[in-house]
Amino acid sequence: MIGRVLQAAGGTYSVRAGGREFDCSLRGRIKLDDGGPVAVGDRVEVERFEDGSCRITAVLPRRSALIRRAVARRRNQVMAANVDQVAAVVAAGRPDPDLPMLDRLLAMAEFDELSAFVVVNKLDLADELPAELAAYEALGYDVLPTSVADGTGVAALHERLSGRTTVLAGASGVGKSSLLNALHPGLDLRVGDVGDRSGRGRHTTTRARLIPLDDDTYIADTPGIQHFVPAELEAATLGHAFREFRPWLDTCKFADCRHREEPGCAVRDAVEAGDIVRRRYESYLAMLEAVEAAELEARTGGSRSRG
Q1: Looking at residue 75, what DSSP letter applies?
Q2: Is 284 exposed, middle or buried (0-12, 13-18, 19+ CB in 10 A)?
Q3: For the whole model, what pTM was predicted?
Q4: Is the dihedral of CA 107, 85, 208, 118 positive or negative?
Q5: Which domains does the chain have, with CATH numbers?
Q6: Is 64 exposed, middle or buried (0-12, 13-18, 19+ CB in 10 A)?
């Protein structure tokens, strides 16, 4: 049978095949092209035995993968395989929209050439769609308002997810689990509260998993996805992940311009002229710093941080 890996834990893989789920072991001689382990979202061949046990006998080629950059001599980590799109979820309130995180998620999707859209959840807590989130439509991103409380946008979200494998990502407390429960009530996922003092959500997902809504629709729920640095992303090309930067990238004075302090930077000129939103540019600078730190960590093997 051909199936999809839903979760992996301690050498046991939960695989959905033929409309059922099986706990499978892994044939020892299987070796992936990248040398890494079988990942959530992988399409696999499985073999069942008379005693009811199940074994993965082959891993089919991946059409896409979200891969975390290796640090301190560890190998790259595949966070999810065979993904079609990214749904970046923010809340209209409680917690307040984390715009730098949203920018990071969208940049990640741009880099991996994945379709992406913005889900603004908890719209019932705002009088209207916050202007800073509506502004993403001007960048070409679809912005979908939703509310589990009154059902706003749930049907439209279901249509956008149908037949695809989607990474559902966002800060804790924005209502990802509540949305999934509304889309598929039988899931009965645990929902976290938002702290009264901090206004931040509490994590309810601790391990990467693929959640089937039906035989053709899957949600990749991956804790930490909002913070990871893609394995092949380079500081020198990060600007291409911000789509509004692209008209100016080839007009900078220096070909290797990182759009920070270099003279003759067309991107910085566009920021000053108001053609690029300054807040998005600041998100770029923060992500550039993170990518440069990851590159340094990869080169030194963490030797500096260990002293």
Answers
A1: P
A2: buried
A3: 0.86
A4: positive
A5: 2-61 (2.40.50.140), 81-227 (3.40.50.300), 235-300 (1.10.40.50)
A6: middle
Beta bridge partners of 85: 115, 166
Which residue, 211, 245, 241, 205, is CA-closest to 225? Answer: 205
**What token pair was written down for 247?**
């008209």
Q: Are 259 and 244 within 8 A, CB to CB?
A: no
Per-residue pLDDT of the chain (307 residues; tens, 9 = 90+): 999 999 988 889 999 998 899 999 988 767 565 556 789 999 999 999 988 889 999 999 999 988 877 665 567 778 899 999 999 999 999 889 999 999 999 999 998 899 999 999 999 998 889 999 999 999 999 999 999 999 999 999 999 999 999 999 988 889 998 999 999 887 776 665 444 443 444 444 557 899 999 889 999 987 767 677 777 788 999 999 999 999 999 999 999 999 999 999 999 999 999 999 999 999 999 999 989 988 888 777 655 444 4
Tokens of 220: 């990749």
The closest of 243, 261, 259, 289 to 103, measured between CA atoms, is 243
